[in-house]
């Protein structure tokens, strides 16, 4: 939460590419270079089994190690990526990096699944399943090593195409999570019509559960609904023991959040994995 206060949106979502500022143009040039020059890094946030405390997966989160500004977070440059057609390049970069790191962990005796966030328009790309299959095969990784996270807004407009790509991914054995569930235009029909494996409950519902009975009721109901449909539930943004205990009491399967670990480098993640026979984070 502290980090958010120190962030400055260098290019706000509202400016929408039209009224391009001088700072925005400069940053865009730097970003194009950064994608090629290896200034983008991928950090990993552990996903923890709420029953056992074991590390059971990791979410890949992109960072920009800017030479002058220091580490930039996604909200500071993803709008530029979206507006200037860099989504495919960035997705491929993050996928490659995440699968390289997963292969390293695997080779070290830790076959940990990794989750990669997709931009909604990526799901209109019918070649995506093929590219992902090749990327996995190239590293001798099982399809279950990869999970993709999609947000609810991905469907606005092109449900059919998105469904085709998702079904393609699912048939290959890649698992699919619906991210930030509840925060956008959640349509329950998505849960019915799409091949989803995991529901990630948005932090805005999770944070208040210990003091807001309405938030708590919604979270319990979504967990029960997801379980009825055979889906795994993940709570995002867990920041304290009380929240973790409450979620465990509701039967939530998995938790992610700064209580367990902030996103860390690939090396630090391997260290977490190696530091205990079955790494337990709490
Ligand atoms: P997200 O997928 O919902 O990722 C979770 C975000 O919540 C991450 O922010 C993570 O650092 C933050 N978070 C985790 N635990 C806590 C906590 O306990 N408290 C608080 N306050 N925050 C917590 P981050 O890394 O800044 O990413 C923001 C968003 O940017 C992501 O939200 C995702 O939508 C997007 N994003 C990040 N990396 C990528 C990427 O490689 N590709 C795409 N397409 N989007 C990405
Ligand atoms: Mg995510
Ligand atoms: Mg999320
Ligand atoms: Mg979220």
Automatic annotation (TrEMBL):
Domain of life according to the entry: Bacteria
UniProt keyword terms in alphabetical order: Membrane, Transmembrane, Transmembrane helix
EAL domain sequence ranges: 24-277
Name of the protein described by the UniProt record: Bifunctional diguanylate cyclase/phosphodiesterase
Organism: Antrihabitans stalactiti
Part of the whole protein covered: 492 to 773 of 773
